[in-house]
Amino acid sequence: MQSEQSSLTGSRVAIIGGGIAGATAAVHLAELGIDVTLIEKGASLVSGPPICHLHAGGNLYREISTEQCIVLLKQSIDTVRLFPHTINNRPTVIAVPHSDGGSPDQLLGRLDTIKQCYQQLVDSDKANEVLGKPQDYYKLYTRTQIEALAHCEQPLEPSSMDEWVIPFAKHADLDALKFPVVVVSEPGWSVFRLAASATLALEKMANCQLMLDTKVVGIEEANNGWKIELIDKQQQTDFLQVDYLVNACGYETGSIDDLAKKRRQRLVEFKAAYVTRWQQSNEKWPEVIFHGPRGTDRGMAQLTPYPDGVFQLHGMTKDITLFDDGLVASKQGSSQPQLPPQLLNKLNQGWDPQVMVQRSRRAIEHMAQFIPDYASADEYGTPLFGAQQIPGQDETLRAADVTFEGEHYARIEVVKGSSALEAAMKLVKQWQLANDRSECIEALHPVLQGLTAEEVELRAEELARSRAYPAQLAQYYGE
Ligand SMILES: Cc1cc2nc3c(=O)[nH]c(=O)nc-3n(C[C@H](O)[C@H](O)[C@H](O)COP(=O)(O)OP(=O)(O)OC[C@H]3O[C@@H](n4cnc5c(N)ncnc54)[C@H](O)[C@@H]3O)c2cc1C
User: Fold this and answer.
1) Which of 64, 249, 322 to mutate to test the pocket of ligand 1 (most atoms within 8 A of CB)?
2) Hey, which of 28, 41, 412 would you mutate to test ligand 1's pocket, going by the most ligand atoms within 8 Å of its Cβ?
3) How far is the CA of 30 from the centre of ligand 1 (A)?
4) Dihedral (C-alpha) 245, 75, 316, 45: value to the nearest 10 degrees?
5) For the residues of 133-168, what is the DSSP string, one character each?
6) For 124-179, what is each residue's pLDDT tens digit?
7) Helix segments in 269-417, DSSP class H
8) Beta bridge partners of 403
9) How many other C-beta atoms can be found within 10 angstroms of the C-beta atom of residue 289?
10) Whose CA is nearest to atom 51 of ligand 1?
């Protein structure tokens, strides 16, 4: 099953890498009727670095430009429309502690600009209203207002920002914070339901050949296209001839660039988030960000909620989320930045259980600085981790999509997952792979839209278990 056959040229496209970038591109191309092969060396799709937050306005990043925030807002809205069953609908609290050195005022100016942009997007198309009403995009809370909410009982199904803020008001150490506290309509995003949505959709489309457990080991320009050398799990070699090649290999994009002799400067950063369980919590938490200077022991602390008291924690310090020598740049002679052996070991062999527990405990202690009761939480299994790429040399870049080299080669280099659809759409346009159809995202992707929330969640739970993560990380959480 696929949408109206609209492939213009009958061209064959191969995408190397089935992370969010490659999987989204494969879904988009296949939905347009294009002949696409997705090659992934791992056993399943979207199993790279974690994704928990849809950066619908980029408000977590004080250092990025307002322009990048607006790009992330627009791309996030398109992403919710593309993958409707992947969002966890709860707001995000952003608090600035005294220890941070910054001021909440830094956030305020651009929040209004982002809110206005959201309003304009909704005015131009009502279907863009996926983050609640534009006038409710964000709300500021004084200390008095937060203290008043601390006396309220949270309803079983919170639906307003006030109701979502209640657990934060009750448990956060308000003396540690500057005011106002910002609450913004930036929802959560489930990496497991994304993986499930892309997999289920691709399985239904005969014009997409999905090759899992298959690694690309060689590429060569041939016959106005590319000849690709593959090795499967049984160590069998095969070759594939295509017209267009998309390199979507995440932190390993440079290796394929090297094979293609297409030079590119980039950064790669290894990071981890920790899965914890706070048994005593029976309230519905929003996501909470406590800002702090990155890389210092006061680095940002991020609490991402899931069902049953499961929380994912980031702590932007060197001994929690960040790692010594975890940010590396490509050098003369290769487009592939080299991570140190101890981090490559984590990527390829997994974690030493002792380090896993140590870092998870530190993440809990870091959070307990701001939410003292959080000290009673426990580590709850394997960290969520991975390496991500950042094209160029600016480590603060957050919105990036696709670049083209010559007539037949592209690389998708997303920093945030929500940039993937835009990258895919640019591929179709640049290579004129399909008729220009000025239809809405939903009409262009009938197979994705036909998936039900239940089948997506079921597959997502299976994927979570197969990767040794608790099923809660795959379950819907929100209003
Ligand atoms: C700790 C952490 C938290 C993050 N949180 C968020 C978040 O909340 N929101 C957000 O939007 N982003 C987040 N990110 C960033 C986001 O995870 C990445 O930018 C995104 O996953 C990159 O997707 P990708 O498809 O480009 O790469 P990947 O997911 O790395 O996919 C690349 C794929 O290519 C495959 N591959 C590589 N080489 C070959 C080969 N030779 N042959 C075949 N296959 C190959 C790999 O197996 C892999 O599956 C986070 C990153 C980290 C590290």
Assistant:
1) 249
2) 41
3) 21
4) -40
5) -GGGSEEEE-HHHHHHHTTSPPPSS--SHHHHHHHH
6) 999 999 999 999 999 999 999 999 999 999 999 999 999 999 999 999 999 999 99
7) 341-349, 353-368
8) 411
9) 23
10) 49
Answer yes or no: is the C-beta of 17 below 6 A from any ligand 1 atom. yes
CB of 272 shorter than 6 A to ligand 1 = yes
Neighbour count for residue 47 (Cβ, 10 Å)? 18
Q: Quickly count: other Cβ atoms within 10 Å of residue 145's Cβ.
A: 16
Specify whether the CB–CB gap between 30 and 36 falls below 8 A.
yes
Burial of 400 (0-12, 13-18, 19+ CB in 10 A): buried
The mean per-residue pLDDT over the stretch 36-47 comes to: 98
Task: Give, for 470, the enclosing helix (H) or strand (E).
Answer: none
Inter-CA distances, 103 with 94, 111, 294, Å: 12, 14, 15
Share of the chain above pLDDT 70, in %: 98
**Closest protein CA for atom 38 of ligand 1:** 249
For 59, 69, 111, 185, 347, the CA distances from 116, given in Å and listed in that order, are 14, 12, 9, 14, 41
Q: Which of 388, 390, 427 to mutate to test the pocket of ligand 1 (most atoms within 8 A of CB)?
A: 388
Q: 251 C-alpha vs ligand 1 centroid, how far in Å?
A: 7
User: What is residue 459's three-state secondary structure?
Assistant: helix
φ/ψ of residue 364, rounded to 5? -65, -45
Structure tokens at 309: 């008291």
Query: Residue 323: CB within 6 Å of ligand 1?
Result: no
Nearest-CA residue for atom 19 of ligand 1: 415
Q: How far is CA 316 from the centre of its chain?
A: 17
Which residue in this structure is represented by tokens 């490659």?
22
Does 249 contact ligand 1 (Cβ within 6 A)? Answer: yes
Q: 88 pairs with which residues across the strands?
A: 188
For residue 50 and ligand 1, the question of a CB distance below 6 A is answered with: yes
What is the separation, in whole angstroms, between the first and last Cα of the chain? 32
Evaluate if residue 7 carries a pLDDT over 80: no
> Could you tell me what percentage of the chain is helix, strand and coil, using 3-state DSSP and rounding each to the nearest 5?
35, 25, 40
- Burial (CB count <10 Å: 0-12, 13-18, 19+), residue 341: exposed
How many whole angstroms separate alpha carbon 9 and alpha carbon 60? 42
